[in-house]
């Protein structure tokens, strides 16, 4: 390390101690050079790959989990609820733990270990035919999953600045969706291969398949360890501080939240309630209603994530260039409602509805989450985003259990009507937000040109100009 530091900052010229000409490090080893930063970016993207891959393991193996563990749909969906419960609270404190307790490097490793341990306990629960142990595993997994996403964003802000930061966030989100997509299309195949090896299906087969899937969590943990080393090395070589989230959590700020922000919260909860629980139950839905094979059902159930992977950065750039966030959110919600209605009441090719759903899902994430920064002061951003993620996880936990109960008692038609009703509530909230924003003179629906012009004018009038604070989108479940 000492030799690297001398090479980067300039070594001694000889016995006299006078500084000699600096000896450049290889590009791949120099934290200031693009090849090294690309290596760090790759590690950041793969940091969350394992958690996103394993998050939807239950959806990819819904038939097998319910058959092998002998549970109904409500119990099956509780696996998703147990993931969300700890994050109702932890969303407020993930940034605090990283900033004040662990630091970004140790915090990332600890959260990655929670993800690994949670997946192992989840798999052991299946291996020992103990469903409550599987639920414990999902709870532990949830403790690490969302906080790991916060750490991932913190690393991004620490290593990348300015306009390149938006691209980095888009690439991280794309990698997360790739992890979900690979899970949907490969876990069923892994289960079949394990079944062929053992000669029978059952809890042991399910447990071994989940353990194999957990290898991706070990891969992400190794990325966390390497990234911690590279970040510590860069801190010493460049004399930079360890990254911080910048979040300031003050629960008393909640009383100052505007009506526009509360409507954004309602849109968030109601919209995602019709996305993630639907995907969790989607595979069997396509098998039963459209007579798809398990492989075809897995493929179509993952199309939302497949579309989101490349389209999230594209839509992020589009919304940045055009503005008009409320209009984009309105388009996304209407398209989602049309998709659910098509799936519920028609037998049209479901690929059409699912592709529309994937486009709408990608667009809404890019337009909705940045709006929070337009309606709250900078010092309340941490509280606002924490509260938004908290109630989102609370909603997902409750809706997951409710969806399972509806499916057990009423069937898929009633479940699709329920999801459509959730999207309708989201649509009503969007319309209300449009009028509230218009009547209060808000800037949520300004064009990008108008917003840039006014920000430039405000900056020129200010005697003290401070650099912007980049608030990354929460990526856990958006």
Q: What does this protein structure show overall?
A:
The chain is mainly α and about 475 residues long. α7 packs across α8 and α8 runs antiparallel to α11. The two termini are about 40 Å apart.
Summarize the structure.
The protein is mostly helical and 478 residues long. The chain is built from 22 helices and no strands.
Write the topology of this structure.
Elements: H1 2-9, H2 34-47, H3 49-55, H4 57-60, H5 62-69, H6 73-84, H7 87-102, H8 104-127, H9 131-159, H10 164-198, H11 203-213, H12 215-238, H13 259-272, H14 276-290, H15 294-301, H16 303-322, H17 325-345, H18 350-368, H19 372-375, H20 381-409, H21 412-439, H22 448-461
Helix pairs in contact: 2-9, 2-10, 2-12, 3-10, 3-12, 6-9, 6-20, 7-8, 7-9, 7-20, 8-9, 8-11, 8-12, 9-10, 10-11, 10-15, 10-16, 13-20, 13-21, 14-15, 14-20, 16-18, 17-18, 17-21
Give the number of helices: 22
Strand % is under 5%
Query: By helix and strand content, what is the structural category?
Result: mainly alpha
In the predicted model, the low-confidence regions spanning at least 5 consecutive residues are 11-22
Q: Gyration radius, to the nearest Å?
A: 24 Å
Task: Tell me about the largest β-sheet.
Answer: none
Instruction: State the helicity in percent bands.
Output: over 70%
- The helix-strand sequence is HHHHHHHHHHHHHHHHHHHHHH
| End-to-end Cα distance | 40 Å
Shape: globular
Total strands: the figure is 0
Mean pLDDT over the full residue set: 85
Considering the chains and any ligands shown, give keywords for the structure.
478 residues, mainly alpha, 22 helices, 76% helix
